Write a sequence for this structure.
């Protein structure tokens, strides 16, 4: 990206938040919806916040407003909601995804290859062609794509394209050649190289095997990182998301966030989870960082991976895959390593957020939490990220030790058919089991896993209450007994997502003492149908009482 474009993006972000803070501001004539201290939906008609952007009063119809109001804003009868919180994203992945090739909308291998060829032609100066989003299951390919197929459209430069879930990547021959990958290259622990019948690398690298090629890709420059963060923030705010949990923050990611914060350009709130024990200690030192930039940034803990994903058959299962009986999945760390890393974090009060998708992986994390809870008391808020496939016998364990299931509703609709093929009907009882986890006493925090799925909270709410996709399929919902209520879905994207990141009391609800982060939208998700909720229009976004986004056609 040209320097001038980078400067334009950064200047645009700065312009939206540079205006002076308002003092003792009343927003009246609103159809307000929030989650109150008891976790119930509360309605209100007026909101007051102070010059620090903190809510002081939430008033119901007929209640008297304070006398010391200095500014008043007419909400024009619009629906006001708390700022949405996405409990699981990859912030820099969203930004870099916007700067590189996006294959997520391709419906076939042929369509993807045509898009790759066009992108290469339009970006002749790029030494590598980078991108993500391919999905051989969506293409109906029945196999992984190959290096030879990439060579046919880009023979002159290395190509590296991550799968939609980030747990596999596709390379052409030049990329493998530059990385020195040959038939003699061994599979690393926790990774697998897809090979042809002769044992030669076929072009796809799963989980830890991705490092065999990724290590030779030129690192982005600081200005590229700044531009990616600016784009990520713009996309998140446009979707009504004012806060996120960033899963897998590297040291250079943290430095990018800090640069934005120092310059007054950190527009969203980021609850950060380090990408490794080393990054956790470099960033946090003896423990989690303080909240920085008026509650806009904090390192909470560490993101750990136990297994891969269903799409690449890397999720670890108790029994073999139904559609590939030779594998149980791919464990990325041993049970002993998991416990060691979780203990290393807990002894310094860092929070652990552990990726587990398969039923074997989830059982192992649940057991680790049970064991560690004997040594590490207090409010730990152990997180399991995804918790997609759980043995029915293990569901009750989510109600113990304050476990948070950090789940992504859109994964259920994207993965439904694949999950049926990978597992068979008999193992779906604990699949995407939102209601069962709540009924067991567990907590739910909802997110998107963007850029794996779109950072679309309202689509997520629609799925959570219906278990149907954008086309309303399947009729009646897939395993509809696992739907949650509208109130539970809204809480999982607001107050519960804040709680999951130790941000409760700071933001996530429109109540006195918390930040005035709110949205104006064109419909009430407590009343609209799932299909209509998906079409929600974000009209305005406010963070700490300052407007940071205005939708198209809205009079500023």
């Amino acid at each position: 990206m040209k320097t001038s474009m980078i400067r334009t993006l950064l200047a645009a972000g700065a312009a939206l938040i540079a205006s002076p803070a308002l003092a003792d501001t009343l927003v009246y004539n609103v159809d307000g919806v929030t989650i109150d201290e008891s976790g119930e939906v509360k309605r209100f008609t007026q909101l007051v916040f102070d010059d620090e952007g903190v809510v002081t009063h939430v008033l119901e119809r007929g209640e008297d407003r304070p006398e010391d109001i200095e500014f008043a804003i007419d909400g024009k009868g619009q629906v006001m909601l708390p700022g949405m919180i996405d409990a699981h994203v990859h912030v820099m992945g969203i930004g870099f995804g916007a700067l590189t090739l996006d294959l997520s909308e391709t419906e076939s291998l042929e369509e993807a290859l045509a898009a790759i060829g066009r992108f290469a032609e339009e970006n002749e100066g790029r030494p590598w062609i980078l991108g993500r989003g391919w999905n051989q299951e969506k293409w109906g390919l029945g196999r992984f794509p190959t290096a030879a197929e990439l060579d046919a459209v880009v023979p002159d430069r290395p190509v590296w394209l991550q799968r939609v879930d980030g747990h596999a990547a596709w390379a052409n021959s030049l990329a493998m050649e530059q990385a020195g990958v040959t038939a003699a290259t061994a599979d690393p622990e926790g990774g697998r190289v897809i090979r042809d019948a002769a044992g030669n690398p076929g072009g796809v690298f799963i989980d830890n095997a991705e490092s065999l090629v990724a290590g030779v890709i030129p690192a982005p420059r600081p200005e590229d990182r700044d531009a990616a963060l600016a784009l990520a923030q713009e996309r998140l705010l446009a979707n009504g998301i004012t806060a996120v949990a960033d899963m897998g923050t590297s040291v250079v990611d943290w430095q990018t966030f800090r640069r934005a914060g120092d310059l007054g350009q950190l527009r969203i709130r980021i609850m950060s989870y380090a990408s490794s024990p080393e990054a956790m200690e470099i960033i946090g030192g003896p423990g989690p960082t303080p909240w920085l930039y008026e509650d806009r940034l904090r390192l909470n803990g560490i993101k750990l991976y136990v297994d891969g994903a269903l799409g690449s058959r890397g999720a670890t299962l108790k029994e073999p895959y139904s559609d590939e009986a030779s594998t149980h999945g791919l464990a990325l760390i041993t049970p002993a390593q998991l416990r060691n890393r979780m203990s290393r974090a807990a002894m310094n009060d860092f929070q652990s957020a552990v990726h587990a998708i398969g039923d074997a992986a989830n059982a192992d994390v649940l057991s680790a939490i049970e064991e560690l809870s004997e040594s590490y008391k207090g409010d730990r808020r152990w997180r399991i990220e995804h918790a997609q496939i759980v043995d029915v016998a293990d569901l009750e364990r989510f109600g113990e030790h304050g476990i948070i299931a950090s789940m992504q509703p859109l994964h259920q609709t994207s993965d439904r058919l694949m999950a049926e093929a990978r597992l068979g009907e008999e193992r779906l009882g604990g699949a995407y089991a939102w209601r069962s986890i709540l009924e067991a006493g567990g907590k739910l925090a909802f997110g998107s896993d963007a850029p794996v799925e779109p950072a679309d909270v309202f689509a997520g709410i629609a799925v959570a209450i219906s278990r149907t996709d954008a086309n309303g399929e399947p009729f009646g919902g897939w395993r509809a007994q696992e739907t949650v209520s509208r109130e539970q879905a809204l809480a999982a994207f607001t107050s519960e997502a804040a709680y999951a990141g130790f941000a409760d009391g700071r933001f996530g609800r429109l109540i006195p003492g918390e930040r005035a982060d709110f949205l104006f939208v064109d419909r009430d998700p407590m009343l609209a149908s799932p299909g209509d909720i998906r079409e929600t229009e974000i009209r305005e976004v406010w963070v700490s009482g300052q407007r940071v986004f205005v939708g198209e056609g809205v009079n500023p």
The chain has 18 helices and 24 strands.
